[in-house]
Amino acid sequence: MTAVVEPPVALLAALPGVSTASRVASRASQAGRARVLPVVPALAGLLPDTGLRRGSTVAVHGGTSVLLALLAAATAAGSWAAAVGMPSLGVAAAAEYGVDVTRLALVPHPGVELPAVAAALLDGVDLVALQPETLQPAVARRLSARARHRGAVLLSAGAWPGADVELSCRRGPWSGPADGYGHLESRQVEIRAHGRGAAARPASVALHLPSADGTVTSVVPSPSLREATA
C-alpha cells in the first residue's frame, strides 16, 4: 500500500525504506550497491550510463509520464522512491507504468517545508521526485549537492538549475479508437536528452508512452520506412 506522508519532517524517518542520515553512510558501504539504477530498455539510450546514476539530478520537461516511466524499473528492482509536492500524481497511473507503488512514498502537500522534506528523503530514499516551481535556485542547487553526497537520484518535474540530464517530451497523437468509438490505447512521443559531461551529446528516441499494453516501448518503423532509409 502506498504511503501518504505529511510533515513534520521528523515523521519521515518512520517510512519504510527511509534511513536516518547516520544509517545512510553504513548502507552506502554495503557490498553490491549498484552505482546506476535501472530504467526500462526503451529509455536506456537517453542516459549516459544507460540508467540513473546515483548522485545525479535529472530534469523532466513535458508531463509526469516520463518521470513515472523512469521510476518503474528501479522500484521493480527493489529501490525506494518518493514524490514530493506533486498532488496530482496518480498512484493508479504510476502502477500502470510499472512502478512498484508499495515502494513509493507520497508527500503531496509539503508546503513551505518542501526543501526540508526533500532533503530528509534524499538522506535515505533511492529516488526523489519533486515539483520545483516554488524553489529558489540556491535551494535547488543545495538539494542537488545533497543528492550527490548521499548517492540518491533527484528527479525534477520541470526546469532545474545545473541538472546533469534534461529530458524533453514532445507528445504526439493518441491511437486506439476505431470507427469513431473505443478506448485510447497508445500515444507516440519523442523524447530528447541533453545535459552536462557524459550527457552533453544530444540523443532522442521515439516511444509509445504508453503502448497498447500499458508499457513503454520503442517505436518500430514500418517496413516501407526501413527500406527507404536503408
The amount of beta strand, in percent, is 15-25%
Radius of gyration over C-alpha positions, nearest whole angstrom = 18 Å
- How do the strands line up in the largest sheet? 1-6-5-7-8-4-9-10-11-12
Query: Any idea of the CATH class of the domain at 3-26 and 34-167?
Result: Alpha Beta
Measure the end-to-end span: 49 Å
Give the overall average pLDDT. 81
Low-confidence stretches: 20-32, 222-230
Helix content: 25-40%
Number of helices: 7
Second rung of CATH, namely the architecture of the domain at 3-26 and 34-167: 3-Layer(aba) Sandwich
Task: Tell me the series of helices and strands, N- to C-terminal.
Answer: EHEHEEHEHEHEHEEEEEH
What's the CATH topology name of the domain at 3-26 and 34-167? Rossmann fold
Quick one: overall form? Answer: globular
Largest sheet: 10 strands, mixed
Category by helix and strand content: alpha/beta
Number of DSSP strand runs: 12
| Name given to the CATH homologous superfamily of the domain at 3-26 and 34-167 | P-loop containing nucleotide triphosphate hydrolases
Give a written overview of the molecule.
- It is a single chain.
- The protein is globular, with a radius of gyration of 18 Å.
- It is 26% helix and 24% strand.
- It is an alpha/beta fold and 230 residues long.
- It has helices at 21-28, 41-44, 65-76, 91-96, 114-122, 137-150, 223-229; strands at residues 3-4, 36-37, 52-53, 57-61, 81-84, 104-107, 127-130, 153-156, 165-175, 186-195, 203-208, 217-218.
- Strand 7 (127-130), helix 6 and strand 8 form a beta-alpha-beta unit.
- Strands 1-6-5-7-8-4-9-10-11-12 form a ten-stranded mixed β-sheet, with helices on both faces. The chain has a two-stranded antiparallel ribbon with strand order 2-3.
- The longest helix has 14 residues, at 137-150.
- The protein has a domain at 3-26 and 34-167: Rossmann fold (3-Layer(aba) Sandwich).
- The chain is built from seven helices and twelve strands.
